[in-house]
User: Which sequence fits this backbone?
């Protein structure tokens, strides 16, 4: 069974950086799939942020411009979200998820971490 | 970006009622459409992928269909446990985009 778990600070100040970790168990992230970050805003809007593939390539949502970076530590089977210059509009619940590119779906999700941007 | 227009935004239905939610894609996305159910405080759960394929463990009262660029999710006989928010998601091309969600409530 593949399991994902997010961790990171629940409160970030405006203009600072947001960093979250997704720890994966039950599957090695270099073996396959795309490993994604998705966020759910208050009011229920969902936004796909980007992914890092099993090979290490990345794909980001252009709406996040140059603020986003997704990296990984293969020795720990973790991948990370870094979002710079946050504003209150980045307040959301952040999920990591596994994308099956063969059939086009997200089967496995973390439980989500709520991040509030506030001074 | 591909726009996914989901309707209705909210829906109130009775137990055992047939419920239909639709998503209209702004361009052809083929079968790269999936549906998710989200309950309060929980992560989204996959229901349907490839437009008509039912995910493992999902009750057979859920079904998906496609007509051109319009995709539909049907719940044949609404149950209490089906209450939540439903989203469609296109993964035909990045950036992947979600519908705005449908909040399903019991009448």
Assistant:
């Amino acid at each position: 069974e593949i399991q994902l778990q997010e961790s990171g600070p629940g409160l970030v100040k405006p203009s600072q950086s947001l960093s979250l970790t997704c720890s994966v168990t039950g599957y090695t992230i270099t073996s396959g799939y795309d490993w994604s970050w998705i966020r759910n805003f208050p009011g229920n809007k969902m936004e796909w942020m980007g992914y890092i593939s099993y090979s290490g390539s990345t794909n980001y949502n252009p709406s996040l411009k140059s603020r986003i970076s997704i990296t990984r530590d293969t020795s720990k089977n973790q991948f990370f979200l870094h979002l710079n210059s946050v504003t209150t509009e980045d307040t959301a619940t952040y999920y990591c998820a596994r994308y099956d590119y063969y059939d086009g779906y997200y089967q496995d999700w973390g439980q989500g971490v709520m991040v509030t941007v506030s001074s | 970006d591909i726009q996914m227009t989901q309707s209705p935004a909210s829906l109130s239905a009775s137990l055992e009622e047939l419920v239909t939610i639709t998503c209209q894609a702004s361009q052809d996305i083929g079968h790269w459409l999936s549906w998710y159910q989200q309950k309060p405080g929980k992560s989204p759960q996959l229901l349907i992928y490839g437009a008509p394929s039912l995910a493992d463990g999902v009750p057979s009262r859920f079904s998906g269909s496609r007509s051109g660029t319009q995709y539909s999710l049907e719940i044949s006989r609404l149950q209490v446990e089906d209450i939540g928010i439903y989203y469609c998601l296109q993964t035909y091309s990045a950036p992947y985009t979600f519908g705005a969600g449908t909040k399903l409530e019991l009448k």
Chain A touches chain B at residues 40, 44-48, 59, 61-63, 95, 97, 99, 103-107, 109-112 (CB under 8 Å). The first strand of chain A starts at residue 3 and ends at 7. Chain A has a mean pLDDT of 97. Chain A has no helices and eleven strands.
